[in-house]
Protein: CSEP0145 putative effector protein
Organism: Blumeria graminis f. sp. hordei
Amino acid sequence: MKFLSTPLTVALAGFLLLAPAVYGENYYECLNDQKFSEQTIMNRGRSATIDGARYGDPKGPNEETCKASRFSITTASGVSTTYLVQAIDNPSSYRVYELQDFQWIECHLRQGSTNRGRW
């Protein structure tokens, strides 16, 4: 029985470690089909502050005001959309919203890859 060479074994082991990071990362999917990796939202959420919260933002699970961070993206067609990232302290997690017709619509956390290189 022939065994795999050491360099090939190391290469395959490295690939197996990388595969979940590339293909299995969770992502947030918003109403307009915009997708953000969970890591992107975590990075945005780290800059969320209580001063970033505004009147009309969705309340937290216990009706509390949440730390917030906002950003906008302009599509190729020139449409600008605003997103809200809320940091929930207990347990530590994030919620993402998309502004549609003056209403915050929650983006849903999905399993798998975003299939987008940018976000």
